[in-house]
Design goal:
two-stranded antiparallel sheet; mainly alpha; 5 strands; single chain; 3-stranded mixed beta sheet
């Protein structure tokens, strides 16, 4: 009898469970995703969710199902490489329909699982010879299938959704600030809270100037290793730059210009840059993605105060 308690057998079972669970996880990841988000690219040269989905379908057929079939049927077959980047262009991934792709991928996944579940214990040691990666067994290919393919691409989709969400929040802030300041009487605009906290215009001017601080932070993180941030003395800046006397329309206009520059920088960064880290004097170590979320939260906080003061 085969040893069903060995680490290899247990690992094989876990990988098969992952392959079987991915259809439900993928359907959930795609639930409610609008077309605009399906086509959103997180960085130049990176795939959208739609392109990842097309890639998963084609890899299921040509990188996994076809290879399993050949390894089980032939003695150490020679396996050609599959150029996913070329296929994305040649097969016009961005022009395909997500529902059709998902249906085809799920059918192919069922075929892959059916084939693997029928394989006898000794067949899992059969191997093929990949032209770039060399010799690998079915066990090794299944591990790559479950971890590198399924888990990797689901994580990519989740990261793209998060990236799009934070960029949308950052892009919406200039219009929200302009709307909150528009038509407000001057005395209301400059009236401080009873506690002495900033007025509407002082909050707005702070949002404008802190954008320059964050632009510097994003640039440092993108091009240097684990930089340490400095903190702006907010009250000192408010006094020196006469926030209380600022012109509301000019503040809103300048904030819009600065935020547009910030978004140009963030949208141009490669995916790896979003995982780079820096040391914040109050928050500790942060990734660039986390810093973008902090900035979006800063927007929300000060816009909330401005709207509350407007009454």
């Amino acid at each position: 009898m085969p040893d069903t308690t060995s680490p290899i057998v247990n690992e094989r079972a876990r990988h098969l469970e992952t392959l079987a669970a991915t259809p439900a996880a993928l359907k959930e990841a795609l639930r409610g995703v609008p077309k605009k988000l399906l086509l959103f690219t997180p960085a130049p040269g990176k795939w959208s969710i739609l392109e990842i989905l097309c890639h998963m379908r084609d890899m299921e057929r040509e990188a996994y199902l076809e290879r399993y079939t050949r390894i089980l049927a032939e003695p150490e077959p020679k396996l050609p490489d599959v150029n996913g980047d070329a296929l994305a262009i040649e097969r016009n991934y961005r022009g395909q329909k997500a529902a059709d792709i998902l249906r085809d991928w799920m059918r192919l996944r069922r075929e892959s699982l059916r084939l693997l579940r029928k394989a006898k214990p000794e067949q899992w040691r059969r191997a093929g010879i990949h032209e770039a990666m060399g010799r690998f067994t079915i066990d090794e290919l299944v591990a790559r299938h479950a971890v590198g393919n399924d888990a990797g691409h689901l994580a990519q989709i989740d990261a793209i959704k998060r990236r799009a969400a934070v960029l949308d929040r950052l892009a919406a802030a200039p219009a929200a600030l302009a709307a909150a300041l528009k038509g407000v009487p001057d005395d209301v605009l400059r009236r401080r809270e009873p506690s002495g906290k900033w007025s509407m215009i002082e909050n707005a001017a702070h949002v404008r100037d802190i954008e320059r601080v964050y632009q510097e932070r994003f640039s440092k993180m993108a091009f240097s290793e684990r930089p340490a941030f400095w903190m702006l003395d907010n009250d000192r800046a408010a006094s020196l730059l006469k926030y209380a006397e600022a012109d509301a329309a000019a503040v809103a206009k300048e904030f819009r210009r600065l935020r547009e520059d910030t978004l140009v920088l963030l949208r141009a960064l490669p995916h790896a840059a979003w995982r780079r880290t820096a040391l914040h004097p109050k928050r500790g170590e942060l990734t660039l993605e986390q810093l973008a979320e902090v900035l979006a939260g800063h927007d929300d906080s000060h816009l909330g105060r401005i709207k509350a003061l407007r009454g």
